[in-house]
Write the structure tokens for this entry.
Amino acid sequence: MSHASGSIVERFTSALADLDVPVTRTTPTDCAATIAGIVAEPVVGVELPFEGVTLPGVVDTDPSPSSLEAARTGVTPASFGIADYGSVALTATPDGSEPVSLFVDRHVAVLRRRDLLPDMPTAFERLGPALRAGDSVVLATGPSATADMGELVRGAHGPKEVHVVLVDDEGATDE
Amino acid sequence: MSSSREERAARIRHLLDTEGSAVGENTRGFNRGRYDAVADLEAYESLKDRARAIKADAIADLPALVESVTEAVESNGGTVYLADDADDANRYIREVVADRDADRLVKSKSMTSEELEVNDALAADGVDVVETDLGEWVLQVADEAPSHIVAPAIHKSRADIARLFNERFDPDEPLETAAELTAFARERLGELIADADVGMTGANFITADSGTIVLVTSEGNARKSAVVPDTHVAVAGVEKIVPSVEDVSPFIELIGRSGTGQDITSYVSLLTPPVDSPVVDAGEPDVALADRDDDREFHLVLIDNGRFDLREDDELRETLYCIRCSACANSCANFQAVGGHAFGGETYTGGIATGWEAGVHGYDSAAEFNDLCTGCSRCVNQCPVGIDIPWINTVVRDRLNRAGDDGRFDALYAELTPDAEPGGLDLGKRLFGNYGTLARVGSATAPVSNWVASLPPTRALLERVAGVDRRRDLPTFERTTLRDWFAARGGCRVDEASATRSAALYADVYTNHVDVDRGRAAVRTLEALDVHVRLPSVPESGRAPFSQGMIATAKEAAEGVHDALRADLEAGRDVVVIEPSDLAMFRTEYGKLLPAADADALAAGSYELFEYVYGLAENGADLEVLTGGPEPVAYHAHCQQRTLGLEAYTTAVLDRLGYDVVESDVECCGMAGSFGYKREYYELSMDVGKHLGDRFAAADARDRTVVASGTSCGEQLDDLLDRGSRHPVELVAPDRRSER
Ligand code: SF4
């Protein structure tokens, strides 16, 4: 973990850069446009539970197994991020956040700046109450990968590409 | 016995030829990755301590944790079944699968399910069981067993897999690259997952407070196996339970780094089933996921299968702390050479597999490969939960020795091998374990003993009866031992009353009987640094019998050593040790063999020779009195010396004296005491040694003087290189004229 220095956003961004995962910063107002510029169609997604943040119209937010199968991009919210590792926490929801983030070639994770946590112990402090309340969460770090075929290949059973959209608080000017 | 040695040698040779290169390349890659990844992790040591403490508490509390997790899972709406053994588990799983009327079950990677052989049990019922981890699927297609606990198909190269797929599936375009192979497998397995009825996973951790199953993976197949079908069965050994969610944190920071050298794997799934995600039902392709009203079913099958007995076993209990990261396999030179098909039992592979196999399948399975742990200890500092893996291997070896049959033990052998072990012990083990007695007889009768030992009929007999490979040179015993020489010169030249320090130099068997020169060099060096040297009569350390799993004999030796050194320790003298494997006995292994106070006193009062010289220099001794460089030197430290973190003292002293040092970073020389002498392991030993030989034959090292701290390393280097090797003290010691 060679990202111990710098601001929390810098650490997060640099950990993800090692995995070739771009991080695009945006604001709640611009978020939909930012996402629209990142996705490859067809796009499936689940609604973002963040106030004032919406998905662009191109996203089908009511996917079925067949539209999931046809989709190239899946957009989901992330409950929090872990700066030291570049991980995003994907909470399983009845509207299908888990399959939407898993079956597509490109996963776009939308994370609020305020939900970025510094390190693993802090992340587990957040996970403890959530899991005890029955949540299921995947800590996803970069694309799906395998080395089982003789060398490292991205996109084994899950996405080949991951893109993180980091939404600053409106008017925030930190970092 | 000799024919089984032959068979074993042939099997190892075959695996070296067929699987050694793929295994070697992959494990060495993981091993380098681990060193790099943990070097960047500031809190590494404290995370390891925390992880170990959590496991120790969890295993101590296991019955209560089983109860808590059962409550948690049941209140979430799942079911928990505690299976006594593999049959019991399989019976339950078959019932669940039959209840769901399932035709296909998709699995993610789980060593515990391999232990159960649940695939066979389900296949017998006509269920189509599909391994979805790409490595496991390769093995399922090839009908082979895993050779590594994390990367099961590590013994197969890309070309092997391409050949397998092209033959089996006959694709339109022959598959070639790793990307093509992966895409092919993804598509094929995706179809099979889509209409699976049941998903089976293992669990890396289970939290007792929330009933969460933690899966550490990279491909995404475990996520699919758990989410696509409506029924999820997780199988896990009871030892996977930790008290709380928060306890999982240090393990997540350690497991990927320790295994493949990744800071974290792509996915850490924390599933609290039944999960909220909708079923992805290929039978209803156009029903929106959000509109489904699924009735998910979850079964946690906890496996005992010997684990609760292991928990009662004071020596093997720590096996249950294992998080199956594979660091002990990847850092093991023998494993790197031959892989898990030799270095493994029915299910598990690598150093800790001895504990697992003894616990879950029994001692016969452990006996198949237990010898391959040479006790070099390279894995000890790599284990994220601090298990003394060599000790587990030694205990199992001791128990196996005791289980042997009686009757091949004759009177001459008894005299040469006066140990505390049972009659059924393998004669080779007994011979090597009693090396000290052999050496005494050898010196007393030298040169006749050397001459007799080197005669072809003797070598043939030694090979047939005791398994000593005739391609190895035997040590040549000196008629005048180090102690004889020291007595003849009238003891030490430095007066104790005026000396800077006073030391008892430990004359180990090899130094005393075989390499007297290095002992004399040590005496000259210490005297030159104004140390009063005593050479008390101390028995052998017990390293030799310990390596053969002869714990009772090693314990006697430890007591003898402590008795012999007690007066020196009490008088405040330092104990200086030349041979690192003996120092490691004093500092580490004696903790298991002696009362704590005795072990602590000896551990605190003993020093490796160069550690001691370095300490003297730090305290004002002038190293100028020694023989300085600028001779170019190639140095190989001893495995146990490196585990103790002591190799830096030798290089520091050599540096200060102006030598230009290149140090090898090869894990092990491959000799490991008697290991490389054994008929059945000679080729493996040479294969491991080849890496050291190559290192010192490289352009930057080939013209350098070779020095090695360990006796075995020196012997191996002598066999590997045209130029001989010496102990570094022979380089730095003052001229022989100072002896008089
Ligand atoms: S014994 Fe330690 S190093 Fe070996 S697999 Fe288990 S946890 Fe990893």
